[in-house]
Amino acid sequence: MLRPSLLALILAVAFALPAQAAGGDLEIFPDPYRLVILIALFTLLVWPANALLWRPVLGTLEERSNQIQGSRDRAEKIAAEADTVLTRYEEAVTRARTEAESERRGLLDQARSAQGDITATARTAAEEQISGARQEIGAALDEARGQLRGEAESLAKAAASSVLGRELSS
Predict the structure, then answer these.
(1) I need a surface site. Which of 3, 29, 72, 164 has the fewest CB within 10 A?
(2) Largest Cα–Cα distance in the chain?
(3) Cα-Cα-Cα-Cα dihedral of 38, 43, 45, 48, to 10°?
(4) Cβ pair 157, 168 in contact under 8 A
(5) Cα separation, 68 vs 118, whole angstroms
(6) Nearest 5°: CA angle at 6, between 44 and 50?
(7) Taking the model in full, what pTM does it have?
């Protein structure tokens, strides 16, 4: 069986009239017989051309257009999902930073409080040591004064005896 396109080609060649050279004859009204044949051939060739050429081409173009639109729809969906994930990620990061800052401030406050407690304890211990040292120094000073008084009296007696040239009685 002949293919429809081959059949259309054979019909076009069979019914084609010999071409006239453009010599100067200008026909305003075409030959009615030739016009009818051309219209018939055109009409006969429309169906095979439509079936063999236009429908497959238009079908392919439509299929391609559908695929492109489907790809665009999927891309938009993926972009929307990516935006959602990015928003959740940014919120999580913001929350984590806020929590970390809050925890840092809490730890800093605890450290300051602990430092204040340690400083107060150290200050109390230092004041106790200073008070104890002052008492020891005061006691040592009283003892040194007592010893110096005793030695001063004996030195005074020795100096007086030396000056007087005799021994003093107590």
Answers:
(1) 29
(2) 184
(3) -170
(4) yes
(5) 73
(6) 45
(7) 0.42
* Tokens found for residue 64: 């391609």
Structure tokens given for 104:
């840092």
For residue 64, give the amino acid letter. R
Q: Which two tokens stand for residue 45?
A: 């060739």
> Tokens for 155?
């030195």
Q: Assess contact for 45 and 12: CB atoms under 8 A.
A: yes
pLDDT digits (tens, 9 = 90+) for 8-27: 777 666 665 444 444 456 66
- Count Cα neighbours of 11 within 13 Å in the Cβ-side half-sphere: 17
Question: Residue 33: which H helix or E strand, with range?
Answer: helix 32-49
Residue at 164: amino acid letter: L
Q: Which two structure tokens, joined as six digits, stand for 4?
A: 């429809």
The answer to whether 6 and 52 are in contact (CB under 8 A) is no
- 12 vs 45: CA distance, rounded Å: 9
